[in-house]
Q: What sequence folds into this?
């Protein structure tokens, strides 16, 4: 499960990157950390915060994609924007490029703040390796499942056809590639309960929890 299991982590403010790929179970793992009071910096939450009405992030998106991606109340129409970027690789890359400085800056700020007060800080970023966020982490944990299971779960969860699900999966690095780059591996090829137990066991091994 872990390349680090033999060595206890003793540093104060240890920063653990948490990633996976779509429908591999990363959110389930993140909830375990939260349950134990461990701060989790959620990249998806940050991405929403930086495009709230009145933010520079939202203004930057409008400059590129036009006011058509806004709702009448000035908020971002995520469904409309999603339709645009999932249909076209160039548009998706453009969106990532526009938002990257805002998201990266906010995540780095939160890491700096939280690591001063907590023995462990988890940074939950879906595109951690793709965005080279590993440089800000002391270690990276990957929530893994096979590509076949990933496809099956995504189709069921989002009510997608196989072609639609594959298209979304291919917007990220292969989970097999991420598995090879992991410092810690949480295997989610079986049940949710077994995944939860693996995260709990790692926390106990590293003395971040005692019960």
A:
């Amino acid at each position: 499960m872990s390349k680090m299991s033999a060595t206890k982590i003793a540093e104060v403010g240890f920063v653990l990157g948490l990633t996976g790929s779509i429908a591999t179970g990363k959110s389930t793992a993140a909830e375990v950390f939260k349950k134990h009071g461990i701060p989790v910096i959620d990249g998806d939450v940050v991405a929403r915060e930086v495009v709230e009405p009145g933010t520079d992030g939202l203004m930057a998106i409008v400059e590129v994609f036009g006011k058509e991606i806004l709702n009448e109340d000035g908020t971002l129409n995520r469904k409309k924007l999603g339709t645009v970027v999932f249909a076209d690789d160039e548009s998706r890359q453009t969106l990532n490029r526009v938002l990257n400085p805002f998201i990266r800056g906010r995540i780095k700020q939160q890491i700096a703040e939280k690591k001063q007060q907590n023995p462990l800080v988890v940074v939950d970023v879906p595109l951690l390796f793709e965005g080279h966020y590993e440089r800000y982490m002391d270690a990276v944990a990957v929530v893994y499942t096979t590509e076949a299971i990933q496809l099956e779960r995504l189709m069921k969860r989002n009510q997608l056809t196989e072609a639609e699900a594959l298209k979304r999966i291919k917007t990220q690095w292969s989970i097999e590639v991420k598995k090879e780059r992991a410092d810690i591996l949480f295997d989610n090829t079986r049940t949710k309960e077994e995944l939860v137990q693996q995260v709990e066991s790692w926390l106990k091994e590293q003395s971040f929890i005692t019960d």
